[in-house]
Amino acid sequence: SMEIEESSGNVYTILSNRESYQEHLLYVHFMKNPKGFQLLLKGGYRPFTGLGKNEDGILQPISISFQMNMRGLGYHEGI
């Protein structure tokens, strides 16, 4: 099992084998950005549940893409 401690002292336990939760996208993302995870917990987030009042929101982080050239945001070739 994996334990994630909330700042108020509550501990959330995820019952799973080690390999499966370590490969879970949320676990990987939270371990790369623990401050963001702490902010979510402070706001009432319960790990591995959906976002929002009814916990039915997104389950995975929003993916971003990087633009490596030196053009500005929204630039389109030929405009």
From TrEMBL:
PROSITE patterns attached to this UniProt entry: G_PATCH (PS50174)
Every G-patch domain range: 32-78
Domain of life: Eukaryota
UniProt xrefs under InterPro entries: G_patch_dom (IPR000467)
Molecular function per GO: nucleic acid binding
Record Pfam families: G-patch
Protein name from the UniProt record: G-patch domain-containing protein
Organism: Nymphaea colorata
